[in-house]
Amino acid sequence: MDWINRIKINESSPLQAQGYEDSFGFQRHKPQLMATSHWHGHIEINYLFDCSADYLINGKKISVPQGRMILFWASIPHQMIAAQGEGEMVNIYIPLQAFLSWKFSNQFISEIFSGEVLVAERLHDGDQTMTRLWEHDLATKNITLVMQVIDEIKNRIRRMSLEPFTTFELSQSLKKQGKKSLSGGLSHIRVILKYIADNYDKKITIDQVARETGLHPNYAMKLFHRVMKTSIKQYINKLRLQHAQALLIDTNHAVLTIAMEAGFGSISRFYDIFQREHKRTPQEFRNEFSSS
Fold first, then answer.
1. What phi and psi, each to the nearest 5 degrees, are found at residue 41?
2. What domain range includes position 65?
3. What is the CATH number of the domain that holds 119?
4. Which of 21, 27, 53, 235 is spaced 20 to 30 Å from 95 by Cα?
5. What are φ and ψ of residue 184, in 5° steps?
């Protein structure tokens, strides 16, 4: 339920946003040029309403026409360097563990994690109205409305994944130049994240995760922590918590059943982790949502 109104970047420290990795974010504003590139762990959506913009994505310039919706993994250094038009932008920041728990197609996920910027061929007539409704609902801080907004954002991305979209072929151009598509080991992180997303509801060991990348387990753990600012174990637990929260809200399943379906292995472990993260029991969380 913790949303940020805006990711504020200290120009001298592009990693300042890392403190918000577990939070959703929403902001509406006039396009703002950035003096330097920055990066953070979210999946980011940009709506360009009656404006267009030029970006540097991992050092490559791209131009996004007005009236488009773009989606990309913000762990890739990005910077807005020019803007045209009198319109406004809407930025939406989605925690990576939430995005992966939504189970989009492998092809769609692979495009994003290969460093592409995905561009919807057109906006829908209701997109601007819907973003204003989201902004209003988030301001109420009503848990039911907030969960509804999250669900609608998820479904808007799902619709994007099913409709025609284009990319700037960023990963292909980098391959032709003999460069890695992602800097700083992010290509290994992509493989780790995909493996965890596919298997978090089962028992996962560090050795299994490392084997997917061909890395030594110790190096895989260090690399993951350096990029994601959390441990592999903590990240898996966050994905499981996302799954469990959805089941607590959307189903009448017993708490024990939910603990097993989400991959916790035991009811006591589920209670310990859930209470530590949310300062309430799973049943209290369910009751709070139901009463609201």
1. -85, 0
2. 3-172
3. 2.60.120.10
4. 53
5. 65, 30
